Amino acid sequence: MEKLNKYAIAVLRQQADSLLDQAFEAVSKEAFQLVDVIYSSDKVDFIFVAISDKAFQVTATLNSKDNNIFNKDYQPIYRKFYEEKINEIQD
Fold this sequence. Notes:
By secondary structure, the protein is of the alpha+beta class. The protein contains 2 helices and 3 strands. The protein has a 3-stranded antiparallel sheet.
């Protein structure tokens, strides 16, 4: 992976945040909690569980329309971002 500057990393984190917002819109922030994100080259799966019933799970999948957003080289940045978000939600 080429070395990314701070600006490029910030842009990728903004894109990741936008994807997360779309996933939350799909399942409702009040009822579900983000517990995992599975990232691949053509899609991102956001795994949520119901707050009132942890046995109930929902997956929101966002497919790639622009492969640049899902570039495998950017996975570590996206993963770190989503791990931070999951930790924030669980705290």
